[in-house]
Amino acid sequence: MKKVLTYGTFDLLHVGHINLLRRARALGDYLVVALSTDEFNAIKHKQAYHPYEARKTILEAIRYVDEVIPETCWEQKTTDVKEHDIDIFVMGDDWKGQFDFLKDQCEVVYLPRTEGISTTKIKHDLGVGHEEEAKKD
Ligand code: C2G
Q1: In terms of Cα–Cα distance, which of 128, 81, 82, 83 is closest to 91?
Q2: Which atom of ligand 1 is nearest to the CA of 20?
Q3: CA of 121 to the centre of ligand 1 (A)
Q4: Which of 30, 40, 107, 114 could pair with 88 as two cysteines, CB 3.0-4.6 Å apart?
Q5: CA angle (9 as vertex; 30, 84 as ends), nearest 5
Q6: How confident is the model at residue 128 (pLDDT cuts 50, 70, 90)?
Q7: What is the average pLDDT score of the chain?
């Protein structure tokens, strides 16, 4: 069984996430998603709308996802690849080159991002987060 591993926050799920998960799963037979915890998101300077448990439930409902594990730090990837017996590590190409250190353990694949969509764009287009600024005025 060829096992695939990817990482992310997957907040406000959109077609870019689905395209990534579908293509990642198609590279093997089993897809593990390491989902950023709320605490790790703070380290990434990301504030997810949905808390970890909600994001986990949503991911587990996706046909391409076989298992969701927590991502709590930058340093866990080497251990995750080993402990989950991973054959292919996959990320969107905005991360191109950042995880090449895993190449001595598994195949590393960077997939083209889906253009025109992002969680940040969704928040901006919905005018989310500006209320805080407005309150300060
Ligand atoms: N993605 C994509 N196309 C988009 C948006 C996102 O292909 N339009 C991909 C990203 O490249 C990433 C995955 O979807 O591979 C998840 O995106 P995020 O939730 O933004 O993940 P990120 O914050 O980049 O977390 O240790 C790695 C980090 O946890 C990655």
Answers
A1: 81
A2: 7
A3: 13
A4: 107
A5: 30
A6: confident
A7: 95
Residues whose beta carbon lies within 6 Å of some atom of ligand 1: 7-10, 16-17, 20, 36, 46, 71, 91-92, 94, 113-114, 117-118
Task: Verify whether residue 136 is a known catalytic residue.
Answer: no
Q: Is 121 designated active site?
A: no
Distance separating alpha carbons of residues 43 and 45, to the nearest angstrom = 5
* Catalytic, out of 2, 44, 103, 121: 44
Report how far residue 5's alpha carbon sits from residue 86's, in angstroms, rounded to the nearest whole number.
Answer: 7
Taking only the tens place, the pLDDT of each residue in 51-107 is: 999 999 999 999 999 999 999 999 999 999 999 999 999 999 999 999 999 999 999
Nearest CA owner, ligand 1 atom 24: 8
Q: Give the span between the Cα atoms of 126 and 87, in whole angstroms.
A: 39
Percentage of residues of the chain with pLDDT beyond 90: 93
pTM of the predicted protein model: 0.94
Q: How far is the CA of 94 from the centre of ligand 1 (A)?
A: 8
**pLDDT value, residue 57:** 98
SS3 of 122, please?
A: helix
